[in-house]
Amino acid sequence: MIRLVFGLLALALLVIVPLFVSEYELGLMIGMATYVALASAWALFSGHTNYISLATVAFYGTGAYTVAVLNESLPYPAVILCAGLIGAAMALLVGLSTLRLSGIYFVIFTFGLAELVRQLITWYEVTITGTLGRYIFLDLTARDIYWQMLALVVVSIGLTAWINRSRLGLALRAIGDDEVVAAHSGIPLARTKLIAFTLSATLITLVGAVASPRWVYVEPLIVFNPTVSFLTVIMALLGGANRLWGPLVGAIPLFLLFEWLSVNFPDTYPIFLGLMFIAVVFVLPNGIIAGLDNLRASLKGSKS
């Protein structure tokens, strides 16, 4: 009960803070909320199953491009609904054809999927419409975008908490521990993975759709930037992808560090990004939260 009260107070504070900050600070808050939502949605599927997906930007960019295409012909709520439905349909199609893969083959496929979607949209725009970029004209302020993104953060974390306590969460953990044993235990592997993958991908698509009005102008090279996929994975792994609050713990400091690096080292920051990925894998393979738990257990053991 106390945790719930503190959580609601923190949420209320996050809702009213944009009324008292500058445009630059609000931009940082939107960026942090965006990556917390992305990392939490990514961990919803990959956190327990250990399927490392690099297709985040495929769904994120699809959401952004859906808004760019439909923003002048449909009301904004209908555009967001269309983005969610397109993301879910795309996830079902991709999941049905790829979730039989595992390990490095799944990683390679998801990386290739992002590039395939980008090339298909580029070909369509250049060949069919005769243009490449699109403008987004929506009457939304930065505060509107922040509040929508904050709502997606709440939905992503709340949905993950609910799944963790459900039979679906138990099945996902069993798949992550040993897929063969899970199958022999009667767990429907394909259905379980497809449900979690579709929920995760739909949320990621909605994040891209909500974030897109910030750009005003979009083109495939902007919205399908593979850095989004790599950052999302690093953030989730840093905090602890199989922990409820792990993606949030990893996303906020890494986003601020990424912002600082991209401003001060614009030509070399991808090198730092690669080094961080290696460091996270070798130094904190289970994330910060698990590392703190192990440290606390060690200290208790040494005292006793």
TrEMBL record:
Transmembrane segments: 28-45, 52-70, 76-96, 103-125, 145-163, 194-215, 221-238, 245-263, 269-292
Main subcellular localisation: membrane
Keyword Transmembrane appears in the UniProt entry: yes
Record-linked InterPro entries: ABC_transp_permease, LivM-like
Annotated compartments: Cell membrane
Protein topology in the membrane: Multi-pass membrane protein
UniProt keyword list: Cell membrane, Membrane, Transmembrane, Transmembrane helix
PANTHER family: HIGH-AFFINITY BRANCHED-CHAIN AMINO ACID TRANSPORT PROTEIN BRAE, HIGH-AFFINITY BRANCHED-CHAIN AMINO ACID TRANSPORT SYSTEM PERMEASE
Name listed for the protein in its UniProt record: Branched-chain amino acid ABC transporter permease
